[in-house]
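Quality-control log, excerpt.
Job 1 of 2 completed; input and output follow.
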Amino acid sequence: MTIILTNDDGIDAPGIQALVKAVNDRKTIIAAPKHHQSGCGHQVTTTRPIHLQRRSDNEYAIAGTPADCVRIAMTQICQDIKFVLSGINAGGNLGVDAYISGTVAAVREAAMHGIPGIAISHYRKAKQNFDWDLAAKLTAEILTDLLQRPLEPGSFWNVNLPHLQPGEPDPKMVFCQPCTKALPVNYRIDGDDFYYVGEYGKRDRTPGSDVDVCFSGNIAVTQIRV
């Protein structure tokens, strides 16, 4: 089956390379934003041209949003897409983040057209570096499980990897509900300029929700419906 790989950090981001490693020998096409699109949500481009750069037979850099990439992939690049994978995002996409995230929007767009998908993100603790090799290993294990599970039409998986510290135990996959608590909204003010300073790691977390599971060191898996 043909799997589309995309993201919102851009086609040259290390996270999508880790995703390529995780899918191993499965047939894939990379259709990802040419530039960084983090936090763009489900924005689509309708009032200007979207430039497509073909880098190889199975890799396309698209000057649009993640949702644009999925639209172009399924209508112009491949007519037989069976799955869409988005990520691995450099940062969590937990709970209400799903409304903001371009990573999640890519698989939501696919789900709108009846194509199942998985959004994969990696929570970042205190601006520490990512271990992309470990992320690829965990993602490969997750894909082995989730690609075999049936999804109702209009549904998709949202997966968040924890940021493990040296010596911490291997994480477990935990199926849970998305947290509905709001993100921190705080600004530093300099004259008429407002600088966002909300601290992601201090967000409220409903016990047992995806935020709680991921912050506690396990892999949070939620099923979201369009």
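Job 2 of 2 completed; input and output follow.
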Amino acid sequence: MTTIRQEDFIQSIASAFQYISYYHPVDYIQALAAAYEREESPAAKDAIAQILINSRMCAEGHRPICQDTGIALVFLKVGMGVQWDATMSVQEMVDEGVRRAYLDPDNKLRASVLRDPAGKRQNTKDNTPAVVHYEIVSGDHLEVICAAKGGGSEAKSKFAMLNPSDDLVDWVLKTVPLMGAGWCPPGILGVGIGGTPEKAFLLAKESLMAPVDIQDLIARGPKNRAEELRIELYEKVNALGIGAQGLGGLTTVLDVKVLDYPTHAANLPIALIPNCAATRHVHFHLDGTGLAQLEPPNLDDWPKLTYAPHNARRVDLAAVTREEVASWKPGEVLLLNGKLLTGRDAAHKRMTDMLNRGEKLPVDFTNRFIYYVGPVDPVRDEVVGPAGPTTATRMDKFTRQMLEQTGLLGMVGKAERGPVAIDAIRDNQAVYLMAVGGAAYLVSKAIKAAKVLAFEDLGMEAIYEFEVKDMPVTVAVDSKGSSVHKTGPKEWQAKIGKIPVVEA
């Protein structure tokens, strides 16, 4: 009989979430470094380099890999011989561990969890409650997996109840391009097949907790249908040419995971969940002898890269004109310098409501650029914590009104823009610039000053003014409405040549 003490469990949970905030799994880094060496697309190679450099910086500096420090997920396998020396419930203990981790003053993590999700959406301030999955198993120890799942990748989760005769691979290959790049590839796809709808989703999520080992599987060969699907999907998804950050390239996924479960004869449920470039999870056991021991990884496993974009154009945000913006080419790398405004979902909603009421906005956006970001709070001598971009498509519905009623010149965000936003950008001769998702700490080093200008009550969603120096971005939608997220994948799918390019 094993007794798990309350404080040991709580502190192990807290340590685990701190650990995964700044340490990528080594297997992920090794797979990403191999993808970097293979990559032939300059834009994708540049993006992967930023992700790898950011990862090493975070491992060295113990700061978050991504500004979205995720919703806390905990998978528990509780041995039937386990007893608890505790006055709190398991959920309460997990939540206390999460609370300690996210409020740690040496590495405070961004609180992203909102209560009353269909109503007031109020931030809980400490990222609780966690989502906990329990399984009672044989044995006398406690197996724990802690994971932090970002909202961008969660938003791209897909499900279908197929007919038993339908082709699973065909569904995945049609679905992945519809996910866009908001899940920050290159990452990992988790596929759950069978059971019931909720079981399929759980299988897909749990599959993402396994090590990256697709190359080992390919080398030894598959032993069952699930492993055959892994290899087939890995090869065919990469043949889509989506590439890092959706810019077009050889590597879209580093691995594909498949778990299945018996299902009803009339059903074929399938769930698809991506894990992003900020893949974060750790696995440990408690046996009643004390705290989990989480060993720091060896930084020699990280490639030593430096970031020096070639042929990048420096932009003075104080002097930039519409004529200069019109000269920027899709795929061109820019280095932004000067004052950059910020704002994301909540700020855009409040601003458009004010405009609809005829009220004056608290910030003048004339000829300015806005960065879609919700930064981590600074610690020590930082001016701002990790501050990578959020998914730009969530702001699409606000884009035309912001461009036409505020004088806004351009936007910076993550991943592609939808047709509504692209039309508005073209009609207003504006521009959309893409920063790399998964390089939040690297981006923050380009921010030399930060202050809140408006909507301070929105916390990380307030309007800030950043002073930036050589902040790297890519022209993703130019003033004529040409999008690299459309042209890049199409070009690389044709170059790879394994899947026919279908004209839209």
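Post-run check on job 2. The chain has a mean pLDDT of 96.
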